[in-house]
Design a protein that fits this description.
Length: about 550
């Protein structure tokens, strides 16, 4: 319940605060005194969009703060999940800066508007006149039935399974679309893969082939120069090998007289062995190297094939082509897996469909079981509110398809008059009838939901006299298990409140200001008398006010 409310710099309110109590509180005041402003400020705490236009002083921020007693409402998990410190007294604050930007706080922890709404929807329900339109809304009608029947767990389960079902259905559609698109792509991908695969590329072959091609293209020149080198090395009288042997022999002859001779002889021996090895390799190469036109043609063809593939795929190496080949192979395997994956998802979807259908059927059965009791309770309340011939019926309609709420749609049917066929509420109900029907629904729901606070904004519009008193009695009954606040213009309703708040305009300052205060017993008599007789309070009105307060 709301324990304390503070409002600063909001519309006609400069700075006001009020303590609120458990039970039934009525709020009265002249038209335009600021009752709707009070609701607007409270709506900010429920996550309504903020606007700099509400700032009384445009150079100061606006602040609305409420203290809620939440100890009996099992909200610890919400605070833990949202990383907010829990306290039995929850302080919710909304601020609007001069530039129109707003911030929200729960126990001084900044929160976004979604978190704020998720919390306050569990704490307060504000029912204003325009909300009567909801009564014609099929989702509101279905939700009201589910709340009455205590089907929150079942509807949550259906919603969760429906979400999973739609996700799987979406995945299946996406996979089928991909498979369809793949049909056009598969042939070309397969062609590209086999073109690379049949080429039998090897990682290092391009370098080797290019080297071989270079050699083949210059075979005669290489052979000629190798022959020259061979001659220079092995010429009998002046060849390098002959001269080296002669040098080695000369140094060897003096090595027994000269200390370095032996060392130089050994080194010359190493050189001779190396040079003879080089000569042998050149000799072998001269014999091996021959220009082979057929081999040159084959090497050129192979290189041209590689160059063509590289250009086609926009790469510059065989390694890159091999990587592309691997990717193409993986893509082909992916194509081949579509059918298998589609079958798997189809089976999964069918299992989920069967599970969801069973849950929806069970939910529908429970709804149908609770409808007669719900209809009876609403009809009884409507009779109490002066509509003895009223007929209230709930029609269940099969949607023939899954929704997040099952396979049911609900239509509320209503007739206020005897021997008149019940029809959809929005087509036949008057404003006063809608108000009484909505109050009946709220009253029945209050018995099923542990909502701390409900605020009515002229729920009694369009009624008067004895019906107004009965309306007040219903709200008073509701207030036995929750905090009920009602903004009213009816003296019969105002007299039934356990507490009476009065909203008025103060013209004493430089600016007109809306204020709110709790009335004493004598002040209540005068306020209700004024509601009965107008600006001039008569003795008869005072007497009637006293009688209403004692009733």
């Amino acid at each position: 319940m709301i324990q304390h409310l503070k409002i600063a710099n909001y519309a006609l309110i400069d700075n006001t605060q009020i303590d609120l109590k458990q039970g039934f509180t009525v709020i009265t005041g002249e038209t335009g005194a600021g009752k709707s402003i009070l609701l607007g400020a409270l709506s900010l705490l429920l996550g309504q969009r903020a606007d700099a236009a509400v700032l009384r002083d445009p150079d100061k921020k606006c602040s609305v703060e409420a203290h809620f007693d939440i100890k009996n409402y099992k909200l610890h998990n919400f605070f833990t999940e949202n990383d907010i410190d829990y306290d039995n007294t929850c302080i919710i604050r909304r601020e609007i800066a001069e530039n129109g930007r707003s911030r929200a706080f729960v126990n001084d922890t900044p929160v976004n508007l979604n978190t704020l709404r998720d919390l306050t929807v569990q704490l307060v329900d504000i029912h204003s006149q325009h909300k009567n339109i909801e009564l014609s809304n099929p989702f509101f009608q279905l939700t009201t039935l589910d709340v009455f029947a205590s089907l929150t767990s079942e509807t949550d389960t259906v919603s969760t399974h429906y979400k999973t079902y739609t996700q799987t259905r979406g995945q299946l559609k996406k996979l089928r679309d991909q498979a369809q698109a793949a049909l056009a792509e598969e042939d070309y991908t397969r062609y590209l893969f086999y073109e690379l695969h049949e080429t039998k590329l090897k990682a290092d072959e391009q370098t080797e082939l290019e080297a071989e091609a270079e050699l083949l293209n210059h075979a005669e020149e290489v052979k000629q120069n190798l022959a020259t080198a061979q001659h220079l090395l092995a010429e009998e009288e002046r060849g390098s090998l002959t001269q080296l042997r002669q040098t080695q022999a000369a140094v060897a002859r003096i090595s027994k007289f000269w200390a370095k001779g032996a060392e130089l002889t050994a080194r010359l021996e190493s050189m001779r062995i190396e040079l003879e090895d080089i000569h042998l390799e050149i000799e072998t190469s001269v014999e091996d190297i021959e220009f082979d036109p057929r081999r040159a043609e084959l090497v050129t063809e192979r290189l041209n094939k590689i160059y063509h593939l590289q250009k086609k795929h926009g790469v510059e190496s065989v390694e890159a082509l091999l990587s592309i080949q691997k990717n193409l192979e993986a893509k082909l395997l992916e194509f081949e897996s579509y059918d298998e994956n589609i079958k798997t998802l189809e089976a999964q979807l069918e299992t989920q469909r069967a599970e969801l259908a069973a849950l929806c059927n069970a939910l529908s059965d429970k709804r149908k079981t609770n409808i007669p009791k719900f209809e009876t309770k609403i009809s009884d309340l409507l009779k109490e509110l002066g509509m003895p011939a009223a007929v209230f019926k709930i029609q269940i309609i099969d949607t023939y398809d899954f929704t997040a709420h099952g396979t049911d749609a609900v239509s509320y049917l209503f007739s206020a008059n005897k021997n008149t066929e019940a029809q959809e509420i929005g087509k036949i109900a008057s404003g006063g009838e809608i108000s009484r029907l909505m109050l009946s629904l709220k009253s029945v729901i209050a018995d099923s939901v542990a909502l701390p606070t409900i605020i009515f904004d002229e729920i009694d519009a369009g009624i008067s006299g004895e019906i107004a008193e009965k309306t007040a009695l219903i709200m008073k009954r509701m207030a036995q298990t929750m905090q009920v606040l009602d903004i009213t213009h009816l003296p019969q309703v105002a007299a039934k409140g356990a507490h009476h708040l009065f909203v008025y305009k103060d013209h004493e300052g430089t600016k007109t200001e809306s204020r709110i205060r709790e009335l004493s017993k004598d002040e209540r008599i005068q306020a209700i008398a004024a509601m009965l007789s107008g600006a001039t309070v008569t003795d008869a009105a005072v007497a009637q006010a006293k009688a209403l307060l004692k009733a």
